[in-house]
Design brief:
By secondary structure, this protein is of the alpha+beta class. Helix content is 31%, strand content 35%. It has one domain: Alpha-D-Glucose-1,6-Bisphosphate, Chain A, domain 4 (2-Layer Sandwich), CATH 3.30.530.80. The N terminus is likely disordered.
C-alpha cells in the first residue's frame, strides 16, 4: 500500500510540473520540450495564436520575434459543484487568461501572467491566486471556489494542449 501511494505521489508530482496550476504563491510556470528550434517554435505558436484568435481584439499583447509572445484569449467555461446538502450547482464563467511563452531551442516555457474573470455586471476582475487558499496554505472549504479554480486550470491546460496538438510535428 505504501509503495502504491508513493508511486501515485511521484506520478502526480511529475504531472503537475507539466501543466498549469494555481498555487498559493501564484500561477506556476512550466517547460514543454519540443523537437524544433526556437525560430520554428515561435512561428508555429504565433500562427496558432493568430488563427485561433477569438472575439478579443488584439489578442497578441506583445512579442519579440523568435524570443517570446504574450497573448490573451477569452473562454466561456462552466464549472459545477455539489453543495453540502447534495444539490448540484452549475455556473457559466467567462475568463480571460494571459499567457507568455518564451522560446529556446527545443524548449518552450509557458507562464500565465494573469487571469481575469468577467462578472455578471460585465466588468472584468483580476483572479487572485491566493483567494483559493487559507492563510496556512490549504485549500479553502468553499466548494464553489474550488470548482472555479479547477475550471480556470482546465481552460488554460486545454488551450496549451490544443496549441501543441495542432502542431503535431514538434
Amino acid at each position: 500500500m505504501k509503495a502504491f501511494l508513493l508511486c501515485l505521489f511521484i506520478t502526480l508530482s511529475v504531472y503537475s510540473q507539466d501543466s498549469f496550476t494555481i498555487t498559493k504563491e501564484g500561477y506556476n510556470t512550466f517547460v514543454q520540450e519540443v523537437t524544433s528550434t526556437k525560430q520554428e517554435s515561435y512561428k508555429k505558436v504565433k500562427l496558432n495564436v493568430v488563427n485561433n484568435c477569438d472575439i478579443l481584439k488584439n489578442c497578441i499583447v506583445s512579442e519579440v520575434e523568435n524570443e517570446y509572445i504574450k497573448f490573451k484569449y477569452l473562454d466561456n467555461t462552466t464549472y459545477s459543484w455539489e453543495t453540502k446538502k447534495g444539490k448540484k450547482r452549475e455556473y457559466e464563467y467567462v475568463i480571460i487568461p494571459e499567457l507568455e511563452i518564451e522560446f529556446k531551442d527545443y524548449k518552450i516555457r509557458v507562464n500565465v501572467t494573469s487571469v481575469y474573470s468577467v462578472g455578471s455586471d460585465g466588468q472584468t476582475y483580476l483572479v487572485e491566486p491566493d483567494q483559493y487558499f487559507t492563510r496556512n496554505g490549504e485549500y479553502i472549504s468553499n466548494l464553489a471556489a474550488i470548482g472555479k479554480k479547477v475550471a480556470i486550470e482546465n481552460s488554460v491546460n486545454k488551450k496549451i494542449e490544443s496549441m501543441f496538438e495542432e502542431t503535431k510535428d514538434w
